Give the backbone structure.
Amino acid sequence: MEEGGDPHAELDRIMKTTQPSAIVIGAGFTGCALAYDLAQRGFAVTVVERGELASGTSGRTHGLLHSGARYCVTDAEAAIECIQENMILRRIAKQCIEYNGGYFVALDDADLGYAPAFFQGAQNCGIPVEEIDVQRALAAEPALNPKILAAYQVPDAAFDPLRLAMAFAASARQHGAKFNTFHDVVGFLRDGIGNICGVSAVNRHAGQPVDFRADITINATGAWAGKVAEMAGISVPVRPTPGVMVAYEKRVTQRVINRLCEPDDGDILLPQRRMAVIGTTSFEVEEADYIPVYPDQVKQMHQRAALLVPELENIKMRGAYMSARPLIGGLMSGRSLSRTFKCYDHQTDEEVNGLVTVTGGKATTCRVMAEKTADLVCQKLGWQRACETAQHPLADYHLYYS
Amino acid sequence: MPNQPEANNWPRWFDPRSRSLGTFGFILNRVTALGLTLYLLMHLIALGQLARGADAYDGFIALVKNPLFKLGELLVIAAGVIHGLNGIRIALNSFGIGVRCQKGTFIALMLIALFIIAFFTFKMFSEG
Amino acid sequence: MTEQLWQVHFKVHRQRTGGKPYVRTFTLDVDPEEYILDAVERIWALHDRTLTYRHACHHSTCGACGMRVNGREKLTCITTISSVTQNGGTVRIDPLRNFPVVSDLVVDMGNFFLRMDRSGFNSVAPLAAACLPYEQPLTAENSIDHEPERLVDCIECGLCISVCPAANTDKEYVGPAVLASLHLMYVQNPTQEFIDQADHHTGLWRCHSAYECTEVCPSGVDPAWRIMDMRKKVMSDRIKSIFRPRSSEKKNAQPA
Ligand SMILES: Cc1cc2nc3c(=O)[nH]c(=O)nc-3n(C[C@H](O)[C@H](O)[C@H](O)COP(=O)(O)OP(=O)(O)OC[C@H]3O[C@@H](n4cnc5c(N)ncnc54)[C@H](O)[C@@H]3O)c2cc1C
Ligand code: SF4
Ligand code: FES
């Protein structure tokens, strides 16, 4: 800082003209989308991820590109966000999405009772919904339970989780972002006045410590956000809330099949490659690093799957897996950019400067989460550059390795 | 890095570890091909003896009468049969024929080869 | 499941970048129906935080978790422990062959992915094209309003390259997955570009018919069949080219 001048103005000037730098911790959907967003806005981005890309929750997600219809009755805001992002992702991430649409099917009278609210809700949220004649639905999806009472069509789709993350990461790399996978963040670096100015990590390939420095650090570690924030002495009340998914050996339908009811266990059956995948459940755990697959939940999924497509009763299971949502507990002091996910600027909340935490949300909405978080980061650093991630198709996912 | 492919590391052709039937077919074809090539070389040398005059040739014939050499001849026949039959399979496969039953074909052809080899063994050694 | 836990010894390949490889044994009580990848994850979570391995989807759609289990290439997320050992038994876990080992069980897929990219590999295809040509495609009445599409079979796991004896001696050989990709792309869009890429000594003609790729492919790609079918297509293209005017002089492009 120059003598005589106003240090703040000087700092402001420097910041507005030199390229700002950011560290993103975690390379799930949120981290990869954020790295792309920031890099595209001109940041020098360094991603630090302790495992492979998408090795946390993101890789193990169910893989449904939500139309939003699942939430149109219970959570209109989430539903609207989903349909908007659904439309954007199918444009920019075509390369890893099977876009065949989805059905909501009623199996009993209670489901039928839900139908009017569902139809109205979907329309209110701007989700293209259409009632399909049962016979026609059965002709389109012959494996469906022949006893269905009603069917609605919505623009659901299935995506390949790793490739979606890689596509964002490849795009980020094309804008100069650097990815350090297999780097475990073990602590935060502080400058002379106690602001966070980077992270210290361990390169797990070499078994060696390494420091990364940047103007701002963003904690995008999903279900682990609480643990990582703890390293900075901050409490972010995130509780890992896992769910189970079961994959079958046969692709029984081409469309996503949802049960026409309020969000429930095992209410979504998804086609993927040659498989069908049913999910999911929800319960809380303390520790998300290793979550065993509970056989009783697998059995429950099996029963639910057979309700939608009876033939699954006798089809071999190919795999069963768990992954943990970041559930945000309690009433938060934190500022909420949206009700569907949380973004905390720890400067306003805990007076820790240089650290932002983003968690929650869905795979479907990762791009807009990144956009809003990057908006906040830009505003903090006084950097003005608009988000363009919705405009351009993502780079080919293979180019992550280029 | 030991796990990396290296140019000219041909001994790896013969590494059957953690592989299945197909690689044995592959290795068998390579071994027989090398054997036949070696034989061809020896054959040319033998022919070369002819040009060097009758004595040298007679000496060579005496060597060839050795039972050990007979075994060698049998091996040549075996190699020829195996390589030839396996070659038919691979050639057909390369035209897109019978790829999906290549395993069964391989087993059948090798049984035929075994049969032919047994036949020649019997014939050569019973004649004394 | 959960009838009874098995005690299993996992012998895991360990190696820091550039360091000397060694084997470390972990003894775990496991549910026999658990997957190998779950056991590896548990070793990392509860026993040794320095262990590195690749994984993402845990249900055979991403291709990240390829390793060698008792020597043989496996997609560990769908390989149950009971399918490779018994109670009290030992399971060896090694990284894939024919890829550079970065550390422990992590191999560098970079070169392979870029080759896949150059082959024009497209992850999504119309349903009929995504199926193997000799299969009964799942279409007809299924397509009411638009032709369904799906993610294609190849998950780019690299198992086929790891097991291939031809890839074992020639690192320029592009390998089964890339050739299968060229075939898949050619079937959808029969242009000269794919023929030229495949018709090369580091391409189609390096394959020596060991059929290991098809044996090991966890995803039903049948790369060997695709390679042979591509040979047929290349041959017929060569024959046709005799009768073609010379103007379309073929440049022998390096494959992917
Ligand atoms: C069962 C289930 C099903 C779901 N299904 C769907 C669905 O169908 N559709 C949909 O849209 N959404 C779905 N979701 C939601 C979606 O998967 C998640 O919201 C999303 O994956 C979260 O991504 P993330 O990047 O925030 O977190 P993560 O993917 O968990 O990323 C966090 C990363 O941080 C890393 N990390 C942790 N600690 C450290 C450290 N100390 N140092 C460095 N890195 C660290 C982790 O390794 C991890 O890779 C589902 C969620 C669950 C649980
Ligand atoms: S062809 Fe099969 S084994 Fe080879 S990379 Fe693709 S999915 Fe894996
Ligand atoms: S973890 Fe994705 S294929 Fe096994």
